[in-house]
């Protein structure tokens, strides 16, 4: 998995979420303050995350609740505008996630130069927003059509707020996803943003696909990140970096730095990593 060192500059990377405000057309879009405000809020959180020492950042339309599985082009365009305005200020690797639409995510990655994306790209689920189907073959072909072969794909195989249709073991899902889709990373989540990922599920997935990177996707905190990274090859972190650890709040640079100090101490002392 040397590609992770090449992409993120380290093993066991921490990808921080830059949660963008609601976009035009979303129920909670603030039309009075408009896109200038959305970009300003994105800039504020980006700089706090970078200054706090994270390894990479991932832009997502996290406040586009309730999410869609086929996102209108206006959302992708609005996100591209924000990232475009911030490009000269982004000093670390970045990725994208247009919730929950892998085709839109690929479009955004190709347009902005993102190095990776995270999405639900395989499986069928019963979710809060209804029956959720995917088409991994279509996604793979769209990646080729967009000349985005270098964009790393982070497959979330335990999606938030959803469960698989069909009684398949998570180890079997991990193995078949790895065989059929060749993901760069398999991501394992808790119930919702901020909910702790079950460590035993991480262990089972990692044991099933030892040659593939496995990331912890939700619920990483200062008090559990060492135990999670002992199993996982990296983590996606969002809510714990916010003021008071609350999803809806702005990023707290002090909390980011304290968290990353723990991670960096762990990486220095880990027998699995050499620096």
Main attributes?
single chain; about 280 residues; alpha/beta; TIM Barrel
Write the layout of secondary structure elements.
Blueprint: H1 2-8, E1 14-19, H2 34-52, E2 56-60, H3 73-86, E3 94-97, H4 102-112, E4 116-119, E5 124-127, E6 130-133, H5 136-145, E7 152-158, E8 162-164, H6 170-181, E9 185-188, H7 199-208, E10 213-216, H8 225-231, E11 234-237, H9 253-269
Side by side, the strands of the main sheet go: 1-2-3-4-7-9-10-11
CATH top level?
Alpha Beta
Number of helices: 9
Order of helices and strands: HEHEHEHEEEHEEHEHEHEH
Sheet with most strands = 8 strands, parallel, barrel
Q: What is the strand tally?
A: 11
CATH homologous superfamily title? FMN-linked oxidoreductases
In whole angstroms, the N-to-C terminal distance is 15 Å
How much helix, percentage-wise, in residues? 25-40%
**Radius of gyration, CA atoms, in whole angstroms:** 17 Å
Structural account:
By secondary structure, this protein is an alpha/beta fold. The chain has one domain: Alpha-Beta Barrel (TIM Barrel). It is 39% helix and 18% strand. It has 9 helices and 11 strands. The protein has helices at 2-8, 34-52, 73-86, 102-112, 136-145, 170-181, 199-208, 225-231, 253-269; strands at 14-19, 56-60, 94-97, 116-119, 124-127, 130-133, 152-158, 162-164, 185-188, 213-216, 234-237. The protein has an 8-stranded parallel barrel with strand order 1-2-3-4-7-9-10-11, surrounded by 4 helices. Strands 6-5-8 form a 3-stranded antiparallel beta sheet, with no helix packed on it. Helix 2 crosses helix 3, helix 2 packs parallel to helix 9 (253-269) and helix 3 runs parallel beside helix 4 (102-112). The chain is globular, with a radius of gyration of 17 Å. The relative contact order is 0.15. The mean pLDDT is 94.
């Amino acid at each position: 998995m040397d590609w992770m060192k090449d992409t993120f500059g380290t093993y066991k990377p921490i990808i921080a979420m830059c949660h963008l405000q609601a976009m035009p057309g979303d129920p909670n879009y603030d039309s009075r303050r408009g896109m200038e405000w959305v970009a300003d809020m994105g800039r504020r959180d980006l700089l706090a995350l970078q200054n706090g020492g994270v390894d990479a950042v991932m832009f997502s339309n996290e406040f586009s609740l309730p999410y869609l599985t086929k996102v209108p082009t206006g959302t992708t365009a609005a996100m591209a505008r924000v990232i475009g305005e911030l490009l000269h200020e982004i000093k670390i690797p970045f990725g994208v996630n247009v919730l929950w639409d892998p085709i839109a995510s690929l479009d955004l990655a190709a347009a902005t130069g993102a190095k990776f994306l995270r999405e639900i790209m395989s499986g069928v689920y019963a979710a809060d927003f209804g029956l959720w189907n995917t088409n991994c073959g279509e996604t793979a072909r769209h990646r080729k059509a967009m000349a985005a072969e270098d964009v790393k794909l982070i497959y979330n195989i335990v999606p938030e707020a959803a469960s698989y249709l069909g009684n398949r073991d998570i180890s079997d899902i991990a193995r078949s996803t790895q065989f059929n889709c060749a993901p760069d990373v398999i991501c394992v989540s808790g119930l919702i943003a901020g909910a702790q990922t079950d460590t035993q599920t991480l262990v089972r997935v990692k044991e099933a696909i030892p040659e593939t990177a496995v990331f912890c996707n939700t619920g990483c905190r200062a008090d559990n990140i060492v135990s999670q990274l002992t199993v996982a090859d990296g983590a996606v972190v969002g809510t714990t970096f916010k003021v008071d650890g609350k999803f809806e709040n702005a990023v707290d640079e002090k909390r980011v730095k304290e968290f990353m100090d723990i991670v960096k101490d762990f990486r220095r002392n880990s027998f699995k990593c050499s620096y």
